[in-house]
């Protein structure tokens, strides 16, 4: 059993069942059409987007998390497609997606750069990429997130990795994040919304 399978093996939802606040605040800017959720975990954001009417594909390395995502979808009366695989092995189909969402999807930098470049190619013209992640300052706050700076993100690196998008939201801020047991308290985050030109 992997680290993430263990984390998701409890009856409760580690990061809760409600969608991420930043995603909710910008969801109306995602055009109609299919949405890809990267590092979808237990599915809270995927299920929310499906309830808005999007066909949603949720990708995560944890089959345990995705099983709970499907259960949450059934409880909410929606359907989502799930793909259990590491993002290192997932091919994002070019120009296929109206939206691609990455909420606290922390990856090693070489893989992250590859996934972000594939995400830009994967969006249709006018499609929207939504990201929220922890910045290195999060290590001082200890309210969630990875244990190393390497896995954090900052705006400068993201601007390079997401070249080809018009960045309508691009900011580093501190804000309260309360998502289940996993994210609790003041957090240092980067928020980004990019549109495919």
Order of helices and strands: HHEHEHEEHEHHEE
CATH class: Alpha Beta
Here the CATH topology equals Rossmann fold
Proportion of beta-strand residues: 25-35%
Low-confidence stretches: none
Topology, number of strands? 7
Number of helices: 7
Quickly give the structural class. Answer: alpha/beta
- The CATH homologous superfamily is named Vaccinia Virus protein VP39
Major β-sheet annotation: 7 strands, mixed
What is the molecular shape? globular
Strand order across the largest sheet: 3-2-1-4-5-7-6
Mean pLDDT, as a whole number?
97
| Rg result | 15 Å
For the record, the CATH architecture stands as 3-Layer(aba) Sandwich
Provide the domain count.
1
Relative helix content? 25-40%
Calculate the terminal CA-CA distance, rounded to whole Å. Answer: 41 Å
SSE topology sketch:
Layout: H1 3-7, H2 21-26, E1 35-38, H3 44-51, E2 56-60, H4 63-76, E3 81-84, E4 97-103, H5 109-122, E5 123-134, H6 138-141, H7 155-161, E6 165-179, E7 183-196
Parallel strand pairs: 1-2, 1-4, 2-3, 4-5
Antiparallel strand pairs: 5-7, 6-7
Kindly describe this structure:
Strands 3-2-1-4-5-7-6 form a 7-stranded mixed sheet. Helix 3 (44-51) packs parallel to helix 4 (63-76). The chain contains 7 helices and 7 strands, in the order H-H-E-H-E-H-E-E-H-E-H-H-E-E. It has a single domain (3-196), classed as Vaccinia Virus protein VP39 (Rossmann fold), CATH 3.40.50.150. The protein is α/β, with parallel strands linked by helices and 197 residues long. The protein is globular, with a radius of gyration of 15 Å. The mean pLDDT is 97. It is 29% helix and 31% strand.
């Amino acid at each position: 059993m992997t680290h993430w399978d263990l984390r998701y093996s409890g009856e409760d939802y580690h990061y809760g069942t409600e969608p991420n606040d930043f995603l909710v605040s910008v969801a109306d800017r995602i055009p109609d059409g299919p949405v890809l959720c990267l590092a979808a975990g237990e599915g809270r954001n995927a299920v929310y987007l499906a309830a808005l009417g999007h066909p949603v594909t949720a990708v995560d390395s944890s089959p345990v998390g995705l099983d709970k995502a499907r259960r949450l979808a059934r409880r909410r009366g929606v359907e989502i497609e799930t793909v259990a695989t590491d993002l290192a092995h997932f091919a994002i189909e070019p120009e296929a997606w109206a939206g691609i969402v990455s909420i606290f999807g922390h990856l090693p930098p070489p893989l992250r750069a590859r996934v972000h470049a594939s995400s830009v190619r994967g969006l249709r013209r006018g499609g929207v990429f939504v990201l929220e992640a922890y910045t290195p300052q999060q290590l001082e706050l200890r309210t969630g997130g990875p244990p190393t700076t390497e896995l954090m993100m900052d705006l400068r690196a993201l601007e390079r990795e997401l070249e080809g998008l018009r960045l309508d939201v691009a900011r580093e801020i501190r804000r309260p994040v309360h998502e289940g047991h996993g994210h609790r308290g003041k957090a240092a985050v980067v928020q980004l919304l990019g549109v495919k030109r």
